[in-house]
Design goal:
The protein contains 6 helices and 8 strands, in the order βαββαββαααββαβ. The protein is an alpha+beta fold. It has one domain. An 8-stranded antiparallel beta barrel has the order 1-3-2-8-5-7-6-4.
Length: 232
């Protein structure tokens, strides 16, 4: 087993994938299905994609995902894996990729502002799959290198005020379709910063990247949203 303390923080991350066909190209049905499932309105945070893809489908492969760190909810799923949201529960060709993750590292940088509103932040999201059923200790120890987090920070320099970097490793399930490792890099966007970050992400995909990378923004949960909806 990898060297992770028992009291390490656990979170639930659920990615939502639209149907592979050209149905629901605006993701309206996907948003409604997630809301009506009744499983993602109890706190947590919905993240919505912030890239514009030049394709028939808005939002790319995963237009939105849900991040849940409520200890009671997380513990409930850890104690009984049968309570996890089924992969095909949304129906109509939609899929969910839900995992229990260990927070391996959380780095707060000089730009970190504890008073910054969660909804005002954007998140560069890096996600990787693995054929190994459990986290690899070498990958855990050297995550900043192989995920590209270190090189991204070096490229950003003073251009992007990254506030926090979080590294997550999947604990359950042992399913190749569920991301094994996730990196979240938060920053407060501005009219100058956001276009540069979008350009940089697209450049990474073309030049030297592997895994999944895109830009998301936090949105209020269904329960707390005045409009009762999320735009993806």
């Amino acid at each position: 087993m990898p060297d992770i303390e028992e009291d390490t923080k656990r979170v639930i991350v659920t990615f939502f994938a639209p149907p592979l066909s050209d149905k629901d190209s605006k993701n309206e049905n996907l948003r409604n299905k997630v809301k009506l499932s009744g499983r993602f309105e109890k706190g947590g945070t919905i993240f919505r994609i912030r890239e514009v893809y030049d394709t028939y489908r808005n939002g790319g492969a995963f237009p939105m995902f849900h991040y849940q760190d409520d200890p009671t909810i997380v513990r409930s799923l850890m104690d009984d894996h049968s309570k996890m949201f089924p992969k095909y529960a949304l129906g109509d060709g939609m899929e969910t990729r839900q995992g229990i993750y260990q927070e391996v590292a959380r780095k707060r940088l000089s730009a970190y502002d504890p008073h910054c509103r969660f909804d005002d932040l954007s998140y560069i999201t890096l996600a990787y799959k693995s054929l190994e059923p459990e986290p690899n200790q070498k990958l855990l120890d050297n995550w900043k290198s192989w995920t590209g987090a270190r090189s991204i920070m070096e490229d950003f320099g003073g251009k992007v005020p990254v506030q926090e970097v979080i590294f997550l490793a999947r604990e359950h399930p042992f399913d190749f379709s569920v991301f094994a490792y996730i990196v979240l890099m938060s920053f407060q966007p501005s009219e100058e910063v956001r276009p540069w970050v979008l350009y940089y992400i697209q450049k990474l995909r073309v030049e030297r990247w592997f895994g999944y990378i895109t830009l998301y923004a936090a949105a209020p949960s269904f329960k707390n949203s005045a409009a009762g909806s999320i735009d993806a």
